[in-house]
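User: what does the whole thing look like in 3D?
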Amino acid sequence: MNAKTLTIAFLAAILAFPAAAQDPYAGKREGWLQTAEAAKPALHLTTVKPVAIVQAVRDEHAFQGWKYEPVGKPEDLKERNFKELETVTLDFGKHFVGYFSFHTKTLSRCLDAPVRLKFTFGEVPAELNTPFDPWGKDRLGRAWMQDETITLTRLDEWVRIPRRIAFRYVKIEMMGWPGAGYDFAVDDFTFTAQSTAGEVQTSLEPGCPERIRKIHDVGVETLRECMQTVYEDGPKRDQRLWIGDMYLEALANRYSFRNFDLTKRCLYLFAALAREDGVLFAPVIEDPVPHPQYGTYITPYALLWNVALLDYLEDTGDTAAADDLFPVAKVQIAEGLSFVDERGIFDVAKKPSWLFIDHRAGLDVSASMQGVMIFALQKTYELARRLGREKEVAQYPALIKKMTQAGRKYLYDKKSGLVLSGPDAQVSMMSQSWLTIAGVLTSKESARAIRTALQTEGCVMPGTPYGTHYLVEAMLCSGMADEARAYVEDYWGGMVDKGADTFWEAYDPTDDLYSPYGFHPLNSACHAWSCTPVYFIHKYPEVFQR
Amino acid sequence: MNAKTLTIAFLAAILAFPAAAQDPYAGKREGWLQTAEAAKPALHLTTVKPVAIVQAVRDEHAFQGWKYEPVGKPEDLKERNFKELETVTLDFGKHFVGYFSFHTKTLSRCLDAPVRLKFTFGEVPAELNTPFDPWGKDRLGRAWMQDETITLTRLDEWVRIPRRIAFRYVKIEMMGWPGAGYDFAVDDFTFTAQSTAGEVQTSLEPGCPERIRKIHDVGVETLRECMQTVYEDGPKRDQRLWIGDMYLEALANRYSFRNFDLTKRCLYLFAALAREDGVLFAPVIEDPVPHPQYGTYITPYALLWNVALLDYLEDTGDTAAADDLFPVAKVQIAEGLSFVDERGIFDVAKKPSWLFIDHRAGLDVSASMQGVMIFALQKTYELARRLGREKEVAQYPALIKKMTQAGRKYLYDKKSGLVLSGPDAQVSMMSQSWLTIAGVLTSKESARAIRTALQTEGCVMPGTPYGTHYLVEAMLCSGMADEARAYVEDYWGGMVDKGADTFWEAYDPTDDLYSPYGFHPLNSACHAWSCTPVYFIHKYPEVFQR
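Assistant: Here's the predicted 3D structure for the full assembly of 1092 residues, as structure tokens:
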């Protein structure tokens, strides 16, 4: 069976693939899958070696309480009896994604018993110094942790660890010895790093401040690591294409690698694998054949897919693709609008899906959803305009107007100058940000809302770089250039100060151990949605680079 | 690099391969390695499936305290949610050697997190129900235990566990789940069993008693499992060619598979890889390229290699090979004789090597070594005679006579009728047996010695089937047909009564937990040196089959 037949068979078996009668994309899906496959960029492979033997040091001032200090050179291991060494930790100097290989060497006699080695890979020091077990029963899967135990029945050869790894550090421990009088070394380590990103196509202004440059570079590395055969959310966890991450990665890609084939591939994958009524699944998984993560819908993500399609058209002028996929954009809008009530308010009580806006316990997303819906209407109308298909969406301008007015009426409190969300009139940065981005508030009102919220006790702050992105975007929409820059320098710069090589999935400046998953080693320390300083710094050079 | 170049480079690097000047096999070794390679028999592969889902039951009457009871059919697992099952144990119905594969199946949605499964393979029930850890620091290697943990990053495909397995039972445990709402089954299991043995070429007499037939069949299975690309000692542990095991396997092979290519290959491997002075290493390891287990010499094994060469010649008439290897036989005799003192006694105090005769703490091997040396002289002289090369070993008959007389004088106590070994005049079955086999005692004296020793309090009994083989052989040399048969029925039949599918490396009828390694799960439960009932039953049909 070839890949295509396999895909169809697999989807048919698992998904009970849509009957053509009700499928708005009938007759299109197979072609879209082929287009996605044809657009897949090649992986660039590079071979890297460890740069230091390191030792873990407990340090309350270090990020999550641990740091590594160099204690030797990897070359020193070539003749070291691993039986005496028992354990060693290596630093590869920066974050890499790919495949780990090692070589063993007989030092005396031969191998009497098979040798067992345990490899624990980590993106950050604490990940290798926090016991994983016993594992909480309701946690995410234990196997996200990158510890692999390998039995060697022979020496003097290369062994490759089968799973793909995302890491900077690896700890190697001997779990089974080769017997008394039999000595061996683990004498070589090679990592085959991979990414589809390619070379950076842009540059910063010569006078760009060093701190901004550093934040930019860490953002670029983050994006590079996440650019695999799809835009992954995090190469350690959870290694898949989410619309929300893709949207932000594509923004950063415009200003760095400019690898638009990858964007095209991802847009098409979502479309081809949509639900039978045309609604997009939020994540897509590539292996063993591309398939959606069944049952996972995120309405705000589906709406942002439309924005990503417009951005793609703007970047590439590829009207053929945009035209091809425009019907998908219309379906997402129609689906979103079905939850808008007669007042013109997006009614979250109808529970259309998981309404992910940010990771923060108790965040009320009513106001944010109003903003996302209006923003998507605006961008989708712009897309129609560029394709000369305004007539198909002639009702959008009136809807934008109605929802904007409803937003001002029901969600904006003129007196306090704040957007209030939900039955408890919650103040959150997400609410202020999204009604700003959607243009519900004037620029002046937006700036006031954001500033007031920042000073409001109990205001729900962003929990992730994903949420923080929209806050900074909102500041930049509201003429708050200095505050936006300060926020970037403080928030993303804070990660750099704490030693980040790549930006993290979750970051609370006040709590290094914060985790949306109840266990900080599960956090992804290289996460796509945190790469957007690349976009801000390039898009607003006057704000950031001078 | 081809295999040969690799071998030479490897040996040169590790062994500091013999300088031609002192090497008695100069110019021969590479050709011998090639001959060994050319004689390698093909592996016969068969695909097998589990026959039952089983449950472990603690039972003090069962071997080592555990047995399995069937509780279901493997087909029932095809749709079973492994997340709910969590663990399952399968019985493959008999012992197999080869490679284990399994297939997974998505039951609902897809895979959210990688899945981690732990497979523990065991030859006997107690092996899967005895905790391995914490592992004693001075034990043999932990990785002999066949537990392997596999991380799956995708489902709906076949996965093969890399290491070769020897087992009948496998326990599968879920160590990392795929996430709430994501369900999967482990829906197929396949084992690719391998052996070079081929088909049995012999048959028992129609009237052969059932008990003898059963013992015979278990012996054949034991041999089949150990016949890989060399005669292995045990396919679980330690997976290599030892001279002592080869000698007994070749005896059983004469009366069953008659696959003499394997014998030829093994004889040549030992010769090609001998020490620089021509002395044979006791074990040879095939991977990554054939090499000896450096530093491990066993003089009685080296001497038995000569006997195996004679047997090979008798079975095949391959005088070319025997002629080719005869110089090696002479070197082993010369090496052995260098430890014989002027009285004609093999002097163990000279500590020529590890003098392995049997696993029994405190066993004195002085008398046994006298027997092995004489036996090897006899058989090597017979070999020379058949090759027409008696002149080269013209001194052997006189040496045999001298050592026989010395044995009678210094080791045999006419009064008690016992062979006494070492400074403490130890009585052991090994001493009686070896001086019997060597013909130092008359048949009548032998029978008396064996019977008396069996009734002597404190007599050191055999610790293994290896030692027991020589005792039964001695009985058969001494006209003790009934006792020999009773011993086989009692000893090997005892293993059958305790559920053996294959005969064990170590067996003490009075102590199921006996282990030469301080931990009974380390014992090999399918061990070549215990397969010799096949030889006895066929060679002496009048004793065993009627």
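In plain terms: Confidence is low (pLDDT under 50) at residues 1-6, 12-19 of chain B. Residues 412 and 419 of chain B are 4 Å apart (CA to CA).
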